[in-house]
Predict the 3D structure of the following.
Amino acid sequence: MIISVVSGKGGAGKTTIATCLAHIFEADYYDLDVDAPNGEYFLQPEDWHVRQVFQKQPVIDASVCSGCGLCTRECRFHALYKIIDTVYLTDTLCHSCNLCCEVCPEGAISYQPVAIGEVRTGFSTQTGARAVIGDLKIGSTRGTALIQDIVRHLEQNGGHQVIDGPPGNSCAAVAAIKPADLVVLVVEPTPFGLHDMLQTLEIVEGMQKPIVVVANKSQENAPLKKILAKRGYALAATLPLDSDYHRILLDGEILSKSSPVVYTLLQQALAAEVQS
Ligand code: SF4
Ligand code: SF4
């Protein structure tokens, strides 16, 4: 079973919950928060295998290009622009969609591979399962492409797999939700957190995925429960704002390993949905 842990708001506690679930269900862990992966600090993997990930990037042969401008008009991402008769690429806007190459009447566009990041795979000393870390190259804007590549290589080994998704509600978050059999939505029940949660909820509902909602760093849950009740959900578990939890996390420990209370809380909250 693939469990994607997401949250609209960054800092809500996705990695805290995702590493707990990897521990509790002895699951492989996939860090798809590729802009800032930090799950490995808790999982402490060993025996790394590193795979570089590349994407295609257009190269325009100026000696063949007629300057017709068709590629600049067709590119949906405005990654190509023309000054006088010369076409230039803004590589950070390119999505490697191949369209410019397809439409060019002169065959002036080819592709070269560019590195967008790496995937590190190790064996976690803390969970006894695999840890797969997506790490976007500094300066690259192709986080979604890196996530999609990792999802394509997601190994179905019969066990459980926990995806630690990126924050927000962008294409990258959608890519991390797409393979899920179950989505765990982590909510920090602040006005900001509730606002972003609603956006994530709409996305996950639109993708018709089963949802379990967990509140984290909670002091007051009444508004959250009211919102969820209106949409037909119950709050599955609540982790309070607790300085002891913060100390455990600052020490780089998986919360459910150090807190039997958290272990039981999350195990019971997901037991019915997670098939053994
Ligand atoms: S590959 Fe696609 S996104 Fe990139 S420049 Fe060409 S048309 Fe634009
Ligand atoms: S479509 Fe081809 S020929 Fe026309 S401007 Fe672009 S690269 Fe040049």
Q: What stands out?
A: The radius of gyration is 21 Å. The chain has a mean pLDDT of 94.
